[in-house]
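wait is this the right file?? whatever heres the structure
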């Protein structure tokens, strides 16, 4: 599998603009001062922007107009004075130095993306006030492109051999079809899903409840190394941050938001995976669950989701894709106007086209290797070629259209 080049912070955003460096620094500072998912901070930034929000957080007091509006909104259930003072107290911490954070990130191969960056996944906006202030990334894959066609696979840490097999198989089959897998990097179902996705050739995204430079669980050092090479590790928490139970639960909303749908492979009735399922439902994402033995506690949560009508029962990648949308439909919108002539293709796209078989089909990873391009580039080129009518998606991957333009 070809390694992929990341989109670095400061690159042009989709609108052609750049995120001002002082805005990036302000968000980096606020990420140390406010808890991830802090809705008051999210509304404060929406109200006045990150620079003024940082000023208020540093002094530990909110502008009267915003404070009055927020008190009305929350019906005074939140002590705004205490909250603002807690932000200021964290600012006084010697580690709260955004410039040092960004420098440390560069040294450790990590990057900070914020809203407005080209790599920022806009589906996170669905989290509204609880959207991340920014995300630390460590890995070669482009997060936004990886999540355009992604499915979350989650479940029990104490997974059974059946659960591990199913998660790995789903991850691999989805990956072969060009879908990225998002999960949490934990033991059990998460790890199996990541490994299956890596075997299939598409990028995988691991959302952690600690800094991207912290290996948790420690036994996954090798797995995270492979994910960094062929996918991306993400986190809302600054470098060096260690996980807590609360952070795992807060992190789950990001896993749900990044994906078209969430598959719960195994979950007991009190499993943390059901928290991710709740977020997926709240975000109007597709929610799916895999059935298991009726005698297994590790499947009781899945069975409850299905029985209550909250999740669709799925048993294969085909059924998952049928629900979240076919890869061909995602990448190949209906053609409008004249198609792109073959001699108008750029060099990379032409090489990808030449690597697509006329019969059968080939997965995007195989095509990328044959064309000598990275997997992200191959997926982009395949999307353009499909839209232009040169290639089509088939169960085994991609092939040339029988009646090209």
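ok assuming it is, sequence goes like this
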């Amino acid at each position: 599998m070809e390694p992929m080049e990341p989109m670095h912070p400061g690159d042009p955003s989709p609108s052609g603009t750049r995120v001002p460096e002082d805005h990036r620094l302000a968000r980096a500072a606020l990420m140390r001062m406010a808890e991830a998912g802090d809705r008051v901070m999210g509304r404060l930034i929406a109200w006045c922007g990150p620079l003024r929000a940082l000023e208020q957080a540093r002094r530990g007091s909110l502008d009267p107009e915003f404070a009055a509006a927020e008190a009305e909104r929350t019906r005074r259930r939140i002590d705004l004075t205490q909250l603002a003072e807690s932000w200021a107290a964290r600012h006084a911490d010697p580690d709260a130095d955004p410039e040092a954070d960004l420098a440390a990130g560069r040294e450790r191969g990590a990057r900070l993306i914020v809203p407005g960056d080209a790599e920022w996944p806009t589906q996170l906006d669905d989290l509204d006030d609880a959207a991340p202030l920014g995300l630390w990334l460590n890995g070669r894959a482009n997060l936004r492109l990886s999540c355009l066609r992604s499915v979350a696979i989650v479940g029990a840490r104490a997974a059974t051999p059946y659960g591990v097999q199913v998660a790995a198989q789903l991850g691999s089959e989805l990956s072969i079809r060009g879908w990225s897998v998002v999960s949490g990097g934990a033991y059990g179902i998460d790890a199996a899903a990541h490994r299956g996705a890596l075997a299939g050739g598409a990028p995988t995204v691991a959302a952690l409840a600690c800094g991207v430079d912290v290996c948790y669980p420690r036994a996954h050092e090798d797995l995270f190394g492979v994910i960094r090479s062929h996918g991306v590790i993400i986190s809302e928490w600054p470098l060096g941050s260690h996980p807590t139970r609360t952070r795992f639960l807060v992190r789950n909303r990001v896993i749900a938001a990044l994906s078209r749908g969430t598959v719960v492979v195994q979950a007991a009735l009190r499993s943390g995976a059901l928290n991710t399922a709740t977020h997926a439902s709240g975000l109007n994402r597709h929610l799916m669950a895999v059935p298991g033995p009726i005698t297994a506690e590790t499947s009781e949560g899945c069975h409850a989701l299905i029985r209550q009508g909250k999740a669709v029962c799925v048993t294969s990648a085909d059924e998952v894709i049928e629900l979240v949308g076919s890869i061909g439909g995602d990448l190949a919108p209906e053609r409008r106007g004249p198609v792109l002539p073959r001699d108008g293709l750029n060099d990379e796209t032409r090489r990808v086209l030449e690597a697509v078989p006329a019969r059968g089909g080939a997965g995007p990873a195989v095509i990328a290797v044959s064309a000598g391009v990275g997997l992200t580039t191959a997926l982009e080129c395949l999307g353009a070629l499909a839209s232009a009518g040169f290639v089509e998606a088939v169960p085994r991957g991609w092939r040339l259209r029988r009646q090209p333009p």
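Residues 39-59 form the longest helix (21 residues). so i think its the right one actually
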